[in-house]
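Input record (one chain):
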Amino acid sequence: MTVAALIAVFAVLVAAQPTPRIDGGLFYLPPAESLVTLGGWGPSTWDPLNEVWGLSGAGWYSLPSAPAPLTHTAAAWDSSRQQLVVIGGVFSDQATLGFDGTTWTQITGPVNTGLAGADAELAYDPVKNEIVGCFMSYGSANQTWVLKDGQWSQLTLGTQPPGGMDVGFVYDEARQNAVWFNGTETWIWNGTAWANANPASSPSAEMGFFTMTYDSVRQVTVLFAKGETWTWNGSNWTKLSPAHTPDNPDRGFFAFGFDKSRGVAVLFGGEAAQPGEESLFMDLWEWDGQDWKVFVPVVPVSDWSLY
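The corresponding structure, as predicted from the sequence alone:
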């Protein structure tokens, strides 16, 4: 039986799940054939967490904790080095870490961006074999950095996306570029330069109330924001009309990632967006390219051969 199959059985048997949190993200971890959420803010004191949880088709399971707290977490799988490259945003002393599903390593120390409360977003470019990092802050222009051979280097570019926080940034495997969206503008990174896509139609989303992931099966970027589901096909955004949708359209700061082993995008948690509320959601939803449904853990029949 594979490691992934053993994890699936273990997850159901122990009924494990993370504590309530926001901003831990969901990222695909190929060695485990599952998604992972890394750190996040935990109530009630909203301290950053170092917990790491995997999410397979059978449910949640615990993974080795990060060596330091992570929140506003950004991560991208580096296929050439077989590790998830991880950085926690908004902390100037946050090192860049590597995680292979078992062991954590430090790749490099803090990135000296000069930005106050810099928010990092990462994408892996398999063509150039490098991690691309967007570092942003309020009132400052976006900075573009690349991580190659264990070192971050800032690129000097004439045109870049605007500053801000909580943007979406994912690599489009079909078109070999990275897609950046801040709630109003869509930009494309082609590995060398930025260009404003200026699509004919576009979502309109507030900071913190949207996120996006790349669907490698249907070869589109998927965005969810306040009950709306959109896809990006490389030239334009399309608003979809699924029969079902996650039942609280006012959730913010939720996690969204694509599970390549099952071919579905998964949405996790978030918090109530209404002023004065601090309630957190712990629900899981799946998007299969056509409709949303509540996540239901499933143990493959073959796994019961263990007993």
